[in-house]
């Protein structure tokens, strides 16, 4: 990893930052999905601030984050039922204990991996999800259109797409509208660039 991801999180301390605004949108979209205990995956979870405060008691969640400082912060904030793995989120292996998940977060992922990896990851999501499972994802700028197309081509229905005109971030919510695929461990999804 070459980037200072701990420093990247500092923008969350400014309530007017684009990152803070994105967080509000992600939470708004997530709240109704967490209306009862759920099985949840967060890929590249950072410090988990999007999902951890909203998790209903009785939920089972796996957050996967490579950076040990951020993973420790997430672990500190995590209620019972949450496992924070300091691990590579780019294979299916760390999700074995929670798949099939009802809710999956891929926030801050697709902007940091090549197109081929984005396509491969989205194609593999039906193997991590329960029937009707929902994905919340983010991507900056016009490339979000490509991500929407990939979800559509993989059998997802778009529930919402937020694109504020005065910001570059985009937040999509897609529900699996076909049968899930069986879970397979050790499948490579992506590698961060
Ligand atoms: C853009 S940040 C997004 C963090 C969080 N999802 C959010 O939206 O606030 C990307 C995160 O991915 C983590 N990361 C990078 N490569 C990873 C990998 N291979 N496995 C797990 N996490 C990784 C970074 O440490 C960083 O916390």
Layout of secondary structure:
Blueprint: H1 5-8, H2 18-30, E1 39-43, E2 60-65, H3 68-77, E3 82-86, E4 101-106, H4 115-124, E5 129-140, H5 144-153, E6 156-162, E7 169-176
Parallel strand pairs: 1-2, 1-4, 2-3, 4-5
Antiparallel strand pairs: 5-7, 6-7
Bound molecules: S-adenosylmethionine.
Please name the defining characteristics of this protein.
193 residues, alpha/beta, Rossmann fold, 5 helices, 7 strands, globular, binds S-adenosylmethionine
What do you see in this structure?
There is one protein chain. With 193 residues, the chain is α/β, with parallel strands linked by helices. Helix content is 24%, strand content 25%. It has one domain: Rossmann fold, CATH 3.40.50. The protein contains 5 helices and 7 strands; from the N terminus they run H-H-E-E-H-E-E-H-E-H-E-E. Strands 3-2-1-4-5-7-6 form a 7-stranded mixed sheet, sandwiched between helices. Strand 6 (156-162) and strand 7 form a beta hairpin. The radius of gyration is 15 Å and the shape is globular. The model has no long low-confidence stretch (mean pLDDT 97). Bound molecules: S-adenosylmethionine. S-adenosylmethionine binds at residues 1, 5, 8, 44-46, 64-67, 70, 88-90, 107-108, 192.
């Amino acid at each position: 990893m070459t980037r200072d991801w701990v420093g990247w999180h500092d923008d969350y301390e400014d309530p007017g930052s684009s990152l803070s605004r994105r967080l509000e949108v992600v939470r708004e979209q997530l709240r109704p999905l967490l209306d009862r205990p759920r099985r949840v995956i967060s890929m590249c979870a950072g410090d988990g601030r999007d999902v951890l405060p909203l998790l209903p008691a009785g939920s089972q969640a796996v957050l996967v984050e490579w950076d040990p400082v951020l993973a420790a912060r997430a672990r500190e904030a995590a209620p019972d039922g949450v496992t924070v793995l300091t691990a590579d989120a780019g294979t299916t292996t760390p999700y074995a204990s929670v798949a099939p998940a009802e809710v999956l977060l891929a926030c801050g992922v697709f902007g940091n991996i090549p197109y081929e990896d984005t396509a491969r990851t989205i194609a593999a999501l039906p193997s991590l999800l329960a029937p009707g499972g929902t994905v919340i994802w983010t991507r900056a700028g016009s490339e979000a259109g490509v991500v929407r197309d990939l979800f559509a081509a993989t059998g997802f229905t778009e529930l919402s797409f937020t694109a504020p005109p005065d910001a570059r971030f985009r937040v999509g919510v897609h529900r699996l509208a076909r049968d899930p695929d069986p879970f397979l461990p050790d499948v490579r999804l992506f590698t961060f660039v």
